[in-house]
Amino acid sequence: MRAYYSIIIVFLTACTAKKQPIPATQILKLHAIDNTITQLNDSLIYSCWDTTLKIYDLKVGKVTYSRKLQDLCYAKAVFKKDNIYFPSSNENFVCLSARTGDTIWSLKLNGRCSNFDFVEDSIIVASIKGAGIIGVNTRTGAILYSLNYSFQETHSPDLSPWPLTYDEDNIYISNWQNSALSVYEKITGKLKWQLPNNKEGLFGPGIIYGTKLFIGSNRYYKGGKILVLDTQTGRTDFEQEFKYEEREIPIIDKHIIYFYSYDSKLCSFDFRNNKIDTLADLDEKTELSGNQMFMIADTIVYSDASFHLSAYALKSNKIAQMQKLQYSALLIFKYTNKWYIVN
């Protein structure tokens, strides 16, 4: 499949109607599946709707690797230490040599791998649709532990891929087995502590800062909550009612988290003083409308409800619409002196 792209010079229109130039913007129409794209140095690795796994070389501006898969891959492939890790079908997860294409190991699954994370160099933690969560040895493909999903035990629906984050010692899984948050040792899979749901709705992924974890819930758009927990004990250090949009993945920059509320507000949380601030009230044209946010330098960028590229400048506290887009942006990043927008 060819990658179609065009270079468009765009200008940032500030709220004062003054125009300020921004870097050249290159649009890549890669036909990628949402949430499967990873930038690694000069390359993008992603899955396509034609059941292929591809690598796009940013230096030469074309696809340099393509591999046909048995099924659509909905998880982000990972390129690590000359190996590529990804689910090759709804039943198999593989590790391939990036140099030769040879299979280093293959793991038979009990369902489709919908997401996986390298929680450390030697361990992958993967969500398996209908089965649960497994820890896998990255060198051998051996299963280290299994956390089994059971509707019969919990009457909690299968919400895979479950939102997951991790630190040096633990993995933190949201909405797992009818608990708001479940914390396991990432090496052994041993349960350490849980936060009960208490009818708080659905929780987004946790964000780690030192020994603190920021997490938010959405009570099906009838309320919500933001919590900051101690990662070692589960103690609540901060709690506030909030209309949190759990589907929007927050951005952390140093000690500040940037996140979104379902009443169309761009907000921040400062770990230094446990303070929530509203940065911008978005209108029906500039709201996120389900699209994800990305950060380039000190600017938060996203494709908005009116199919424009919108930018919020943190220093000037201004939001502006930029280039009109044909499709929603799946990824926005800076490479060399250009902004890249992946459709």
Automatic annotation (TrEMBL):
InterPro entries the record matches: PQQ_b-propeller_rpt, PQQ_rpt_dom, Quinoprotein_ADH-like_sf, WD40/YVTN_repeat-like_dom_sf
Domain Pyrrolo-quinoline quinone repeat: 77-146, 180-275
Domain of life: Bacteria
One Pfam family cited in the UniProt record for this chain: PQQ_2
Transmembrane annotation, as ranges: none
Full protein name: Pyrrolo-quinoline quinone repeat domain-containing protein
